[in-house]
Design brief:
Elements lengths: L4 H28 L4 H4 L32 H15 L40 E11 L6 E11 L4 H11 L3 H5 L2 E2 L8 E8 L2 E6 L9 H15 L7 E6 L2 E2 L2 E2 L4 E2 L11 E3 L1
């Protein structure tokens, strides 16, 4: 049976529409996958439509490229490092030394009232008997307490200040020791030959040994022995102690604070 010409023409139109639709779909897929027709020339290979699938050359899709495959990757890396260095300058790992706020070359300054005022006029006294104060302990163990003991020494005349201090460091006589009399001042403690008596205040310069080898109570006894022995004689009303040219503010490792001017404390005195 012969096919009607109109029907045959409609079939060809449908086939053309189908092929055109397939081609359009392929073009859209090509665009969505990132193909560039200008770069690749054409989506279809030059071998012709019939050889699609037979060609060994497969269309390359967008694949990640290896940056190290190029010959210029070292130049690119150097350029990136240069840009980063200029944008974010590398901080110096070595910290600059901090400037000291305290200049160690500046010497310590002693205030005028803390300096030894210098030698003054020496005292002169006639021969006679002068009082000297020592210690005697009463009680035993923890209940033991020291008391001041007033004794006298024969003075040959001359300067009484060095004489009295020397008697304190010399200590009691053997007979007095037999009665329990002691001294908190040892022979190591020396008095400098220069002193100054001004406005009733006796300025004495002594060795730093006065702060060594004694408890807090012993240190207090030393100060009392000096104060009671010096004050009340020759117009002396108070004593200020110095060592190495500077005023003594504290004594001992525990830091016993010394008054501005030593005076007689309120404590019992035993007269032998």
């Amino acid at each position: 049976m012969a096919v009607h010409p109109q029907i045959q023409e409609d079939k060809w139109k449908s086939l053309r529409y189908l092929i055109g639709g397939i081609f359009l779909v392929l073009v859209l897929i090509e665009k969505s996958m990132g193909f560039d027709p200008k770069a690749t020339g054409s989506f279809l290979p030059k071998q012709g439509f019939r050889n699609i699938g037979k060609s060994q050359d497969k269309a390359k899709f967008a694949e990640p490229s290896d940056p190290f495959a190029k010959d210029t990757w070292e130049d690119d890396l150097n350029w990136e490092e240069e840009v980063l260095t200029q944008t974010f300058p590398e901080s110096d790992s070595k910290q600059k030394p901090r400037t000291k706020l305290v200049d160690e070359t500046i010497p310590e300054i002693t205030l005028p009232e803390d300096r030894f005022p210098g030698a003054g006029k020496r005292l002169q006294a006639d021969a006679g008997y002068l009082p000297v104060y020592f210690l005697k302990f009463y009680g035993t163990g923890k209940n033991s307490q020291s008391q001041l003991v007033k004794l006298t020494r024969e003075f040959p005349g001359g300067d009484p200040i060095p004489f009295l201090f020397q008697e304190l460091t010399k200590g009691p006589s053997p007979e007095e020791k037999g009665k329990g009399v002691l001294s908190a001042l040892s022979k190591k403690i020396r008095m400098e030959p220069n002193y100054r008596l001004e406005n009733g205040i006796l300025h004495l310069s002594i060795s730093e040994d006065i702060g060594y080898g004694g408890s807090m109570e012993i240190l207090k006894d030393r100060l009392d022995q000096i104060a009671f022995t010096m004050i009340g004689n020759f117009g002396i009303k108070g004593v200020v102690l110095y060592s190495n040219g500077e005023r003594i503010r504290t004594l001992g490792s525990d830091g016993l604070t010394i008054p501005e001017v030593l005076a007689k404390t309120q404590r019992k005195v035993i007269i032998f």
